[in-house]
Amino acid sequence: MTLASRLNDIKNGNGKIAFITGANRGIGLETARQLGLIGVFPVIGARTVEAGEAALAELEKLGIEADALVFDVNNRADHQAAYDYFEAETGRLDILINNAGIHLEGEPAVESLYQPSTVPEAVLRETFEVNFFSPVALTQKLLPLLQASPAGRIVNLSSILGSLTLHADPQSPIYHAKATAYDSSKTALNAWTVHLAYELRDSTTKVNSAHPGWVQTDMGGSAAPLTLVDGAKTSVLLATLPADGASGGFFHMGDTLAF
Predict the structure, then answer these.
(1) DSSP state of 97
(2) Catalytic residue (choose from 85, 114, 186, 233)
(3) Higher model confidence: residue 138 or residue 216?
(4) Of 148, 174, 222, 236, which is most buried with the most CB atoms under 10 A?
């Protein structure tokens, strides 16, 4: 089946389509793989044509049909281009996974490079731009297409490090793992998830925050205990929630986490 015919089938209601940002490697690519294996058509957001093509080649080895868009989460023109693609090709978007993110304060397992009193404003601003402002802007742009789906699903890649409850508890496992910019950006993303879920409470569109776990990626570092396969499971679970599934929650592999 050609790409055009597959997209036309989806447009006619035969299958689901997903957009995953930062999906040319790591958790994003593994999420695309897992969704593809259950019949979802993944569209990969990658910053360059070459990165997108390399990701598609990996999926093609597994017999997974997919597509890729040149997409920089910080580029609002790319947000519009993504909207134009889905509006033209399928008339809707079934799944949005805001997967792209950065951590500029060292490995999570290691003491942060900065204290709250010394973290540079530039680090705060860059982190918030990628991890909070850009996914909010992208979701706002694509929301009409998600609401055109009979079962729109939005997954915001957060982190347990965004939990204020656990950060304030001296007995919690993350009490000493404090990276001000990254943690605060994920706390803000969680808050927005709750607010958006409230706005969408009477619709069929659901939005949730996902903690993938501490995963063996460039960001997670070498000490991380989880594989990419495990790291993608929460995103896939939330992307495929049934009609009676949760909205406005914070989850890891089916377990509810404290905000």
Answers:
(1) E
(2) 186
(3) 138
(4) 236
